[in-house]
């Protein structure tokens, strides 16, 4: 892995109160949550996880999930996303007693959320992401018996080479065949290695790399959405918008506005809607985008 690139990224964090009897909304974008008070149920990947006060959970992109509660719950939520992690983490990943194990990290995010009076900068957001990601990973290593000593899981060298190429050139017209040829493997062999190492297919990995590059371009300047689309490998703004909405639950321009609002201390309330539950565009069917569609 490239040590110059962050392993985790995050744009916003905020507090949310779930009313008693809340059934939640089905969503499909990366997220982290901490139960501050009460109990909640995370339903993801066909399983339900009861979360008590102090528990935390991380859900990766493209896993449809919802958070519900019977008696009410207070949550801290963030759009924490793994960018380049050498561990095939569980998805969802549930950490029991996160507050007891990582009290300092939990208190930091609670006291100074990324949307609110504190309004930290993008540099703080990167720091928060690294802290949360490291804490969740450390807990997973401990809970799975790997511990924090000894050799860590090794990313397949072929997968690592392909991922480095994708990150270096997200705008290239990649196909699964092209990825496989670059490391002298068949399409099926490469797919098996990706699933074993990362828990996702090559096309899903490409989508995530392109989405990360797109978020960086959207948040870092005023380049038109159409130009961002071409820069990250999509043949049209429409194809890019469909792919971006399928991944994030909102369109690229709306995401850009929300990211800008999260950095604006005059608009702390803007982040409230980034719970995404009240967005109309979350109610339509989310379709995964395949490499062969060339979202490219």
From TrEMBL:
Residues 249-296 are annotated as: Disordered. The keyword DNA-binding applies. It holds the Pfam family HTH_18. The keyword Transcription applies. SMART domains: HTH_ARAC. Residues 255-296 have a biased composition (Basic and acidic residues). Keywords: DNA-binding, Transcription, Transcription regulation. GO terms for molecular function: DNA-binding transcription factor activity; sequence-specific DNA binding. Residues 160-258 form the HTH araC/xylS-type domain. This is AraC-like DNA-binding protein. It comes from Nocardioides albus.
